[in-house]
């Protein structure tokens, strides 16, 4: 049996092209690159989540500040009346508008529809 085995072993030629080594190294480097990209993407996601939470906190504080300012405005606007404005030096002014004469047609000089436009005096 050993003699038969030795003859088979001698007849087998081993072809070593280093292709297995190349494929193994390629797989290892690919795994390393994918692990690096995973860490980078995971870090960016965590950073974005932290920034979003900070912005949400800031938005809540600004919303509270706006609500406080609205309440202050409403309480102050309820106190404004004519006597307060007069005491601060404001005076009531009557509105005057620019008036002009209406456009009219003068058809008395020529019968049956000759129209004369009266000029507007401003």
Which labels suit this protein?
two-stranded antiparallel sheet, mainly alpha, 122 residues, single chain, 61% helix
Helical amount: 55-70%
Strands of the biggest beta sheet: in what spatial order? 1-2
| Distance between the amino and carboxyl termini | 131 Å
**Unreliable stretches, pLDDT < 50, 5 or more residues?**
none
Radius of gyration: 47 Å
- How many DSSP H or I helices? 3
Query: Structural class given helices, strands, pairing?
Result: mainly alpha
Can you write the helix and strand succession as a string?
A: HHHEE
Mean pLDDT: 81
**Quick one: overall form?**
elongated
Q: What's the total count of β strands? A: 2
Q: How would you classify the quaternary structure?
A: single chain
Strand content: under 5%
- Characterize the largest beta sheet: strand count, sense, and whether it forms a barrel: 2 strands, antiparallel
Can you offer a commentary on this structure?
The structure is a single chain. The mean pLDDT is 81. The termini are far apart. The protein is mostly helical and 122 residues long. The longest helix is centred in the middle third of the chain and has 59 residues, at 19-77. It is 61% helix and 3% strand. It has a domain at 22-91.
